[in-house]
Design a protein that fits this description.
This protein has 252 residues and is α/β, with parallel strands linked by helices. It has helices at residues 7-27, 30-63, 75-87, 92-102, 165-183, 185-195, 215-230, 240-251; strands at residues 111-117, 126-132, 140-145, 153-154, 162-163, 202-207, 235-238. Helix 3 runs antiparallel to helix 4.
Amino acid sequence: MIRLLTRSSLDPFLSLRVRMERALRANCSEGAILEVHDAVYAPVKRATAPVYEAIEDAVACTLGAVEQPVQAPGHRQSIATLRELLDRNAKERDLQNALMDSGLLAATSKVVEEVTISPSSDHRGMRMDIVAEATTDAPARIVELKRGSHLLVAHEGLPSERLSHQLHAAIDQLGRYGRRIESDPAIRLDVEQRHGLHLAPVELHLVAGRRLSDPHAYTLLSIAETQATASGSTLQIYTWDGLLAELERLLD
């Protein structure tokens, strides 16, 4: 199949999708977004995909268009590969390698992995999994990745339900990265110059665990995000399923 729009001509549409996804996350929990994704987006996409492909092929055949594909081939396969790795409980390193190799994150901004923060007299050295550059549509993102088996909520669905110690530890770890970047201009400038990034402002993104079955559990995640934001660090917590669904909506 030959698509008629190039990547450059689609940039405004991708930009709009990024802004829409950010607005959704600002007003809805990941659980609510996933419900709509499964009930509305995915069925509609499956039903309309053959129609759009037939129209594009017919017009391309008529006009003799020879444009390059809009997306690098295989983004759907990359998402499927990541889901397969998650189902096999792959290690963090394997998930990070697959995510970076896929180019999924690089579709919306420049991304760099294994970004170090040099030690100082008051702080030990740090290494951030992934850093995404700020764009006109979104702040820079410090992304911390954990395994799909990473526990988010302890005693899910029970009266004693609470955020897990593992999740608290991951949030604290990510918060330390953010505080170093945001509180020390020399540190931020060093990272920016070494990697050619622009890092102001900064959001913290934690990707860990799989989709939660209890809607109240997502309320706990939203509370954790709100508490972090109140303390000065904008935090978004994604499950791997939530992240991949968002990437699917952005890139399809």
